[in-house]
Specification:
Blueprint: E1 2-6, H1 10-21, E2 25-29, E3 41-44, H2 46-53, H3 58-64, E4 66-67, E5 70-74, E6 80-85, E7 97-100, H4 101-116, E8 121-122, E9 126-133, E10 136-142, E11 148-154, E12 156-159, H5 166-171, E13 179-192, E14 200-206, E15 209-215, H6 218-222, E16 226-235, H7 257-260, E17 264-265, E18 268-269, H8 270-275, E19 279-287, E20 295-296, E21 299-301, H9 316-333, H10 337-360, H11 366-374, H12 388-402
Parallel strand pairs: 1-2, 1-12, 2-8, 5-14, 12-21
Antiparallel strand pairs: 3-7, 4-7, 5-6, 9-10, 10-11, 13-16, 13-19, 14-15, 15-16, 17-18, 20-21
The structure holds flavin-adenine dinucleotide.
Flavin-adenine dinucleotide binds at residues 6-12, 29-32, 38-40, 42, 101, 126-127, 160-162, 166, 247, 303-304, 311, 316-317, 320.
């Protein structure tokens, strides 16, 4: 089948690799004139690593990324609430990786260029409009200035064009801007010393003020350093998004450092990490309401275009990668493309929508709020504040919904 993929982000490139491997003729169209390694750190959950490993990418991921050993929930004083084991030693079939988003995109791009042929990934091609009939989809592409770059035809079109998807807005014209929950995330990377296990993902604080931190570079670790990825969250009452969010908008440390000035943990000096940042970006925590339909005849939404969600608990990239596998399976098992795209939608939409909703309730980070409410000044023993069974049931419930619980129950 001839397949057009819109967007060469994590979802689009993974889908291209999966469909090419299944024998389809795939072409990817990306609006930017050059794909650059943008973003900061993300986590890839084990089932997503499993998908990428099936393309032979396991050695490359291991060479670049840090294997996450544990998710540690802490209070604002740096006291441990729960350490949830991750990675192969914790009973998962595949490791979980903390990785720079740009590094991951470059790994996927190189693999896709090699598999499909570099000319099959067309940069500087922004989808401008499209039509479909029973023979397929016709699409018009322009550059970002609006000059025509060409018209292309395919049997189906997969729209992995992100949270501002033009394909989604075609089918949902009244949706408007993404929804903001009032939290600003300042994100950065800092070269520092390894902390805790050297592969710990730590979330400290509570909903309104949180510091998330984890190392993302194998190369730094190999020379005894840590490339520390961090996110400082602060919540504001305003939820009116004034301008379109941008992953690359620079942030100012004076806007949030004062709130974290006293956060000096035995294992990490938070204000020092913030001060030593290589660069700082600010991003509002946005998502969109789940929709009832992703598949429209021969056109389908995938990844953030289908289910934009708060970047909580490592599901943004992971769910896009799981989509790639699912759509490939649907197209392999059902000959009629329209029915296959609907099958993909029917299988994935309820799962992804539930994660969107759970992330609005802070996902497993709700633990932080419970502990902060019950023991704002810290605790001697966490058992005095919350039962371990309750903690495990909250974390286990989220993992089950997101599809990555261990083979041996959490
Ligand atoms: C520059 C950038 C930086 C990011 N940094 C982070 C980060 O630091 N942390 C984090 O958690 N998440 C980050 N994300 C989001 C994260 O990549 C996604 O949530 C997740 O990986 C799902 O991927 P996706 O492929 O669905 O969407 P995305 O990764 O957003 O990819 C969408 C792609 O579609 C392209 N596109 C959009 N419109 C068109 C069009 N009309 N025609 C052709 N192409 C189009 C975009 O340029 C982009 O390359 C970033 C996204 C981007 C684009």
């Amino acid at each position: 089948m001839k397949i057009m993929i819109i967007g060469a982000g994590i979802g689009g490139l993974t889908t291209a690799l999966a469909l090419h491997k299944a024998g389809h003729q795939v072409e990817v169209f990306e609006q930017v004139p050059e794909i650059k390694a943008l973003g900061v750190g993300i986590n890839l959950l084990p089932h997503a690593v499993g998908v990428l490993s099936s393309f032979g990418l396991a050695p490359e991921l291991a060479r670049v990324a840090i294997e996450a050993q544990e998710y540690v929930f802490m209070n604002r004083h740096g006291q441990e609430i729960l350490a949830d084991a991750r990675g192969s030693t914790a009973g998962y079939a595949f490791p979980q990786y903390s990785i720079h988003r740009g590094d991951l995109q470059m790994i996927l791009l190189a693999a896709a260029q090699q598999a499909l042929g570099a000319e099959q990934i067309r940069v500087g091609h922004k989808l401008a409009s499209f039509t479909q009939d029973e023979r397929g989809v016709d699409a018009l592409f322009t550059d970002r200035a609006g000059n025509e770059r060409g018209r292309f035809h395919a049997d189906i079109m997969i729209a992995s064009d992100g949270i501002h998807s033009v394909v989604r807005s075609h089918y949902y014209p009244d949706e408007g801007m993404p929804l903001w929950n009032g939290t600003i995330m300042w994100r950065g990377t800092t070269v520092g010393k390894p902390f805790l296990t050297g592969g710990s993902v730590v979330k400290a604080g509570w909903t309104s003020q949180k510091f998330i931190v984890y190392p993302i570079s194998r190369q730094h670790a190999d020379r005894g350093e840590a490339l520390i990825n961090w996110i400082a969250d602060l919540h504001f009452d305003n939820t009116n998004l004034m301008e379109r969010e941008d992953w690359n908008r620079p942030g100012k440390i004076e806007d949030f450092l004062p709130a974290f000035e006293s956060w000096k943990f035995p294992w990490l000096d938070v204000p020092e990490v913030i001060r030593n940042a290589q660069s700082v970006f600010e991003f509002p925590m946005v998502d969109r309401d789940p929709v009832a339909q992703w598949s429209f005849g021969r056109v389908v939404l995938l990844g953030d275009a289908a289910h934009p969600m708060y970047p909580i608990s490592s599901n943004g990239a992971t769910q896009a990668i799981i989509d790639a596998q699912a759509i490939t399976e649907s197209l392999a098992s059902i000959a009629d493309p329209v029915a296959a795209l609907k099958d993909f939608q029917d299988k994935r939409l309820p799962v992804a929508s539930q994660i969107v909703r759970m992330n609005r309730q802070e996902g497993p980070d709700v633990i932080l709020d419970i502990v902060n409410e019950r023991a704002p000044d810290g605790f001697k023993h966490i058992d005095d504040v919350i039962a371990r069974e309750e903690l495990l049931s909250i974390v286990g419930g989220y993992k089950k919904a997101a599809g990555h619980q261990q083979r041996s129950a959490a």
